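Priority: medium. Attachment 1 of 2:
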């Protein structure tokens, strides 16, 4: 079972910055892609950013140019640097980690709240 622990959420003013961190542990298998999802009140969970073990990244159009995703040297940590945040970025942010058994299983953390005030 993979455990994902997020940190770094909080309250930030519009235009400010925030950095989210996530550490994965407990997997008997190699962790492949990692990423970040978010869910705002009354909305479906959506992918924000993802990164492969090779460093290829994919970002949602709504955050391109503002958010950056990166992985730590140990490959079991992932970060989301959020710059120029907007009130619409307010959501619970969830870290994700893919493990290929097979099949591919995507694990999620408990989430961390990000609130952007205008």
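Attachment 2 of 2:
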């Amino acid at each position: 079972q993979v455990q994902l622990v997020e940190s770094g959420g909080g309250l930030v003013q519009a235009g400010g910055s925030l950095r989210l961190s996530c550490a994965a542990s407990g997997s008997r298998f190699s962790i492949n892609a990692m990423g970040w999802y978010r869910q705002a009140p009354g909305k479906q969970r959506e992918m924000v950013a993802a990164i492969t073990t090779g460093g290829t990244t994919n970002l949602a159009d709504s955050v391109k140019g503002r958010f950056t995703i990166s992985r730590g040297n140990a490959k079991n940590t992932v970060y989301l640097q959020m710059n120029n945040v907007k009130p619409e970025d307010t959501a619970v942010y969830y870290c994700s980690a893919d493990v290929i058994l097979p099949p591919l299983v995507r694990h999620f953390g408990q989430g961390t709240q990000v609130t952007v005030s205008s």
